[in-house]
Model the fold of this input.
Amino acid sequence: MKIDAMTFRNDLMLKLLLISGTILLYLGVAAAYFDEWWHADQRVETFFTLPHAVLYASIFLNGMLVLSYVLLQCNKIGRFAPARIPGSSGLALAGTGSLFQLCAGLFDMVYHDLVGFDVSIWSPPHLLAIFGGVLSAVGFAGLWQKVSIIGYI
Done:
């Protein structure tokens, strides 16, 4: 079964993915600001803090939403063929961005153990996390551009 562009534009599951994914992206940005405030307030730094929990939970949930949508669409097609899903480039960017951010979190934890704690946001793991966030945002922006939401909100 091929999923045509009109079916894709009217896909309620995709619209729910976009709405919840965008909310989770904004939650991640808010958690990053919360983390900055946490550091500026001179709180004891460890990887396992409330801002990091909120940040990485939102990233993980976003990645799982994208992966679940891709698997559901592949099930409709009848085989694992993500390239046949309309908007697959946006889904790939959003999912890859989440994966980069999760890897950046692990890298950040190891980096802090080896090098110590950052004095600014411009450490290598933070740059990787920012890059992943931009990838996710670009992926979701591309999907938003392809979908008509009117009538579903």
User: Anything to note?
Assistant: The mean pLDDT is 85.
